[in-house]
């Protein structure tokens, strides 16, 4: 028995030494980053190849190395399929010993990929995905949600539209998990603010023709038509609404998950006056404009908030690696949380224990064709929503990491 | 207010009208597929890509060359038709007489290449094609607001559909076409250039798809994937109508638009599947399709 205890403690001691040694160095003498995103499908333009370019910009701004350790970038197309995404990440961590995975767009892919990342004890920095569940019921110490989430978007936009006097609401909901979650988030805000939801229609995902749903929404007489969908569905719904004279008849539209590339694709004729919430916009100040100009020169379009988020998250990660001299997940994660984010993307951003990066969000309105001075001059900032009001408060969190904290107190 | 199945009659009328508009699109697209299958026995999986090319030709023409909508409505089908003829002449002809599967795979491969290249060039968000000035605005019908453009779509699609049906079923050229597919050797013995007829037919089918693409450009986003999304439904329409039946494709296209329209009111969740449900039932009861001849 004594001998056993001796061996056990020896093993324990040696592992401790080993992990301590590991904590103070860079594995494989390289910082390996994987970029996983939809590179060819529906979500290509909101992150896709542009996000990869943003990641490369971050690596180049570090001179390609952190203290002489090379930054190596892998990338893959997840095709918006959770199994493809999870398998890719598994290969990366198993065979290439990738330290950090970023991009991460479709919520379904992200939920699958982050499980693999957690098992392998690596780090995931999520920029593209929407679901607020990522840092709520699916939170883990191994991932951080950077740019935005459904809670912040619904909260920001619905509150603003409600405040402007839109009391009766009609929901146009994409008929799958994300749409239902969005619908619930919006309903909560509307009913909490004294408004009412007078009707809804759940359309199949994806749909190409929205004329029937728009007509039903129009017939409902609701003051506000909320679009609890995303991407091509939102674009189609907005275009159809404009043709059927929805706004002319006095009804307001509220798009929830709308990206810069969507507005650019639809044009201002269709989208003018639309209120939406964004985590970042290229034309906010000199810093954002300077970065966006560099990006535009490389990619040929202006960056979306998701693409800017990839850059910001990667820079913050690399800074933490540099400061700690380690790429060990726990060490880097702790350093990242301890350091506020102050860059072109966010001012005073903070990473919470649930993995939510809390930063200011912006309520914007789409410009009229007369107001716009260029191809990408699309938003005017209406107001800034302080981070602590924008995101789900920790008090409402179902995240196991937060519950642990509460239990300790 | 008169109620029918718990839905106000006015709402129902509006939805039926919308169904008819969508049906006109289905009819136009499935017509091209039916002609190509009926006369060439090729299952044209490139049809969606050809539809997309029509829309892009219109958009590119307007953005870079200042070609207006009305000219595009004529030029885009000609251009895509010419591309179609080149494909038939140089690729499809090599596999003529082989199993249907080869034609399907070849056209599917072409569609993937074209759509992939367009994604690379233009992204997936797509572009917006401005509404032509003449067709802006709409009519208040009392029970709904009907955008002028949608009314135009129905008229244009139906005129083209009926003209095509007339040409194939009622004219001398049409009779050559039909005879050429029945017995090409005999027709050639009469001095008819059958290979040319076949090339023209495929070109015409592709041109119909492009025409539908230009019609769609002002109302849907012009994007590389716009055709792929629609193609499967259109195939179902062709199967329901009876592979190769021209009138079958037109009537079924309109009917499926109406059925889908009603589904969107009574049970919107099933709107994308109802066409396939009808397809299954039709295949069980009449395997050759509603208008198809029993083999």
From TrEMBL, chain A:
Highest taxon above the source species: Bacteria
Signal peptide from the UniProt entry: 1-23
CDD domains named among the record's database cross-references: PBP1_SBP-like
Record's keyword terms, sorted: Signal
Record Gene3D superfamilies: 3.40.50.2300
Transmembrane segments: none
Annotated Leucine-binding protein domain residues: 30-367
Record-stated family: Belongs to the leucine-binding protein family.
Name recorded for this polypeptide: Branched-chain amino acid transport system substrate-binding protein
Record organism: Pseudomonas linyingensis
TrEMBL record, chain B:
The entry's keywords: Amino-acid transport, Cell membrane, Membrane, Transmembrane, Transmembrane helix, Transport
A biological process from GO: amino acid transport
Classification via InterPro entries: ABC_transp_permease, BCAA_transport_permease
Main localization (coarse): membrane
Cellular component terms (Gene Ontology): plasma membrane
GO MF annotations, alphabetized: transmembrane transporter activity
Location in the cell: Cell inner membrane
Superkingdom of origin organism: Bacteria
Any Pfam family the entry gives: BPD_transp_2
Topology versus the membrane: Multi-pass membrane protein
Bilayer-crossing regions: 12-39, 51-67, 73-92, 104-129, 149-168, 189-220, 232-258, 270-289
Family classification: Belongs to the binding-protein-dependent transport system permease family. LivHM subfamily.
Protein name in the entry: Branched-chain amino acid transport system permease protein
Lineage: Bacteria, Pseudomonadati, Pseudomonadota, Gammaproteobacteria, Pseudomonadales
